## 1
Amino acid sequence: MEKKYYTYILLIEGGALYCGYTDDVEKRFQAHIEGRGAKYTRAHKPLKIVYTKEFDTKSEAMKEEYRIKQLSHSEKLKLINSQAS
């Protein structure tokens, strides 16, 4: 089975959004909750995963993470809402 990579967005307490990439979204989310995920999520409590997108390569996932990080908060919300519908 080929390894897949994911770009994900977390909803943070207070309404902020955090974007990252991983090969296991649930495991990574658990790491964020336990304070092992990223410096930002140690200081700002992650509430839930609100967006995921699957890729075949780590490079593609990283490029998407970079692209999302360039978006404004409202553009990120549109992206999240477009996946939900």
## 2
Amino acid sequence: MKQAISTKDGPQAIGPYSQAIKANGFIFVSGQVAIDPATQQVVSGDVAAQTERVMKNLSGILKAAGSGLENVVRSTVFLKNMGDFAAMNEVYGRHFTSTPPARSTVEVARLPKDVLVEIDVIALALE
């Protein structure tokens, strides 16, 4: 059985997808970009500011699913420019201080709404 997760603590889906799906003991969170859920607008700033917003979005969605960042087992980071890796990584690392998840990071040609970073995660479902 699968359950769609929806919360106002993350940006509303801008297409035919769920913010997250809980299934078989896992939570699969859709790629999050730097959209402020309160305004549905991209936050201004560099990749560090955008990564911080992405991490808050991921955290809010995971919380709504009964989990949290501490339960993330896998993540994928999509960067518009691999030159932003160090700045993204510094912010990302502040949110995963103990047993960080497995991760892939790739540079892509373009991201939704022309943001600088997108991150998706898979976490353990605790409920």
